[in-house]
Write a structure and sequence with these properties.
Blueprint (H helix, E strand, L loop, with lengths): L12 H9 L9 E6 L6 E11 L3 E9 L6 E8 L41
Antiparallel strand pairs: 1-2, 2-3, 3-4
Pfam families: Zn_ribbon_ZPR1
Family: Belongs to the ZPR1 family.
GO molecular function, one term: zinc ion binding
Length: about 120
């Protein structure tokens, strides 16, 4: 997907989190460390990946996986500075096209989402 500004690619956070938590390419993550599994008490692995979302800010994706109980957890934390200008996005969905609402949204702590009218 392309951004509306300077043609920058927008990061698919869901796919990036799956790449970090998967068994795939070892060079995909920035850092990995052993961590305590809150489910079984054994050690698992937490992988970290830093990435930038254009016109938003830098984020750190964290993916935990326990080989003992198969617990998995993905988390997004914000890093870096907030962009100097805010934006407003308005989404109008045509009637009968509810699948357009099936989206993953990454927002900062200070952002808000308002749904003014929804009818199915």
């Amino acid at each position: 997907m392309m951004g509306s500004g300077g043609g920058e690619t927008i990061v698919d956070v869901g796919a990036a989190a799956e790449a970090v938590s998967g068994e795939g390419e070892a060079s995909a993550f920035l850092y990995a460390t052993e961590s305590l599994c809150m489910r079984c008490g054994e050690n698992g692995t937490t992988r970290f990946l830093a990435t930038r979302i254009p016109h938003f800010r830098e984020i750190v994706l964290m993916a935990f996986e326990c080989p003992h109980c198969n617990e998995r957890n993905n988390e997004v934390q914000f890093a870096g500075a907030i962009q100097p200008r805010g934006c407003r996005y308005t989404l109008t969905v045509p009637s009968g096209d509810a699948k357009v609402l099936n989206r993953q949204v990454v927002k900062s702590e200070s952002a808000s989402i308002k749904v003014l009218c929804i009818v199915f």
